[in-house]
Design a protein that fits this description.
heterodimer; A: six-stranded mixed β-sheet; 8 helices; B: mainly beta
């Protein structure tokens, strides 16, 4: 299989991106109605089980404040970076992915938060990942994802995303948030905002075909040109 | 240490910092395992403990506070009244009161705690279970559920007490602008 897309930007692409983006990246805020809809269903009377593909962030903990929760944090950002900045084969990625999955203990997740990670996987890679995750999801699961829709390119490494109050998604370039985990503290040019790769712009049909057993129940075009998806069991 | 985008945050001490100097471990009633110490086995006691070295096995401080200092490395199952993690931890962690995870922490394992405070920058891979009182009540149901029922959510709703958990989020960034004017429903 081919290496994952986050490492595929060529020097020519990076040079072109450098010319376009001289400004320091800042936090982006965008309202995400579907994510808000998901979190509004969290009530104290019911235990919630979430699987979060991203890094543990204060925002999600704050959102879960006062609730009875199980939260599985997979931290795929770090999973990609375990081998340094070298490209990661699909086999290696999925081995690391499996190793990061906590024991389900017979429980089924109510919510799967994919954030922006599906943009960095090809359809077969999405299928392979969902094959692993699907048996862990309940019959009423809500799968949330943010997909690049309008932009022709995207950061070479997934931005760090977090949930804020009022259904706001905050996002930062990974190297800005975690400079100690990348080469950015040595080479500012390696900031991911300078390294951009073509956005796959997965269509709804492609996503549904890549995730057998799930259907796109709702889609919303966000203010930043990304699309927010909410999938449920078919 | 955390919230690198906010210059003010760099100069102010963290509100989550434990009330001790973890570099020296000096505080009355505090036991210290120094940087060069490596322990295999079970540690138990009735005083607060700061670990700057390496511990493998089990740590039991049911009524006291455990601090894993920035150079501390724990490969153990831990039970403590309250825990502050600045270093590395790999294992199961049960906290009766409050868990504080600072920005330098690297954690892998399962956490059960009624309250969790997190600073930006911490690395975590594993499971966090909050509201352990209800967790214990739900345990028989979970354990007996060999084959998950269709109405998984409904069953859990019946078993839960709904007790609340509190958090002290370290992320105090304010929202400056929200571009939601272009939203539209596609379907």
């Amino acid at each position: 299989m081919s290496p994952l897309k986050f490492a595929r930007s060529t020097p020519k692409e990076r040079q072109a991106a450098n010319r376009c983006s001289d400004t320091k990246p800042e936090k982006q805020l965008v309202k995400a109605p579907l994510l808000q809809q998901v979190t509004e269903c969290f009530v104290q009377a019911r235990r919630i089980y979430l699987i979060d593909l991203s890094t543990l962030r204060p925002g999600i903990l704050h959102c879960l404040s006062g609730l009875h929760v199980r939260l599985d944090v997979l931290g795929l950002d770090d999973c990609w970076l375990e081998g340094g900045n070298e490209s990661v084969s699909s086999e290696t990625f999925h081995d690391r992915f499996k190793s990061r999955l906590p024991d389900p203990n017979g429980e089924l997740a109510d919510v799967l938060l994919c954030w922006n990670f599906l943009n960095y996987l090809s359809p077969p890679e999405i299928t392979a990942m969902m094959d692993i995750l699907l048996p862990r999801l309940s019959s009423q699961v809500e799968v949330h994802a943010v997909i690049e829709s309008s932009a022709v390119d995207m950061p070479a490494r997934p931005d760090v995303m977090s949930l804020s109050s009022g259904g706001i998604i905050e996002s930062w370039p990974y190297a800005v948030e975690f400079p100690d985990r990348t080469d950015s503290h040595r080479d500012p040019e390696s900031l991911p905002d300078h390294n951009r790769i073509p956005a796959p712009r997965h269509s709804t049909d492609v996503l549904q075909a890549s995730m057998p057993g799930l259907v796109a129940e709702q889609t919303v075009l966000l203010g930043n040109g990304q699309k927010e998806y909410l999938f449920r069991r078919s | 240490m955390f919230n690198r985008r906010d210059p003010a945050a760099r100069t102010e001490p963290s509100k989550n910092k434990p009330d001790m100097d973890t570099s020296s471990g000096r505080r009355s009633g505090l036991a210290l395992i120094g940087e060069s110490i490596r322990i295999e086995g079970t540690i138990s006691g009735e005083e607060d403990l700061l670990i700057q070295g390496e511990v493998q096995g089990k740590v039991e401080l049911e009524a006291n506070r455990l601090t894993i200092g920035p150079k501390g490395r724990i490969f153990a199952d831990v039970i403590a009244n309250s825990v502050c993690i600045e270093g590395q931890m790999d294992g199961h962690l049960v906290v009766h009161n409050e868990l504080v995870i600072l920005g330098t922490a690297r954690i892998k394992g399962n956490i059960t705690a009624p309250r969790v405070s997190l600073e930006d920058g911490a690395r975590f891979n594993g499971t966090i279970k909050m509201n352990p009182v209800a967790e214990q009540q739900a345990e028989p149901l979970t354990a007996s559920r060999q084959k998950p029922p269709e109405t998984d959510r409904d069953m859990r709703a019946e078993s839960d007490s709904g007790a609340s958990a509190n958090f002290d989020s370290g992320d105090k960034d304010l929202l400056h602008s929200v571009d939601n004017g272009k939203q539209r429903e596609d379907s």
